[in-house]
Write a structure and sequence with these properties.
The protein has 125 residues and is α+β, with helices and mostly antiparallel strands.
Length: 125
């Protein structure tokens, strides 16, 4: 595998983790010191990965609700062979999110070291 295909595999692990609410996959793709950020409510919200993982564990997964995986890579910007910023769109139930994922490649492969997300839209059903 090349570093590009390894990164795509890590992105797909992230997609599966969110779609399935699978904390094992989530914790495998996030660096244990990573944090998540959002400012949609006008203030900066910061959540460590451990807290986010607990939140995900308590959710009903889109997969278990019969929702097909809706996720796409919008952009990959390689800063170097060992670091990249990835912009993705993913749907979870009625929420569609845009995420910027900061990835760093270390001895354990590609890991998300930061996530900035934005709720792009809510789909009425």
């Amino acid at each position: 595998m090349t570093f590009q295909t390894d990164l795509l595999a890590a992105i797909n692990t992230y997609f599966d983790a969110i779609h399935e609410c699978d904390t094992k996959k989530l914790n495998a793709v996030f660096h244990p010191e990573s944090s998540l950020f959002d400012a949609d409510n006008g203030t900066i919200f910061v959540e460590p990965i451990d807290s986010f993982s607990q939140d995900v564990a308590g959710r009903k997964s889109p997969a278990s609700a019969g929702q097909a995986l809706e996720a796409e890579v919008l952009m990959i910007d390689f800063l170097s062979p060992l670091s990249a910023t990835v912009k993705i769109r993913i749907r979870a139930h009625q929420s569609v999110f845009l995420d910027h994922l900061g990835f760093v490649r270390g001895e354990d492969g590609w890991k998300i070291v930061s996530k900035i997300w934005h709720l792009e839209q809510t789909i009425e059903i």
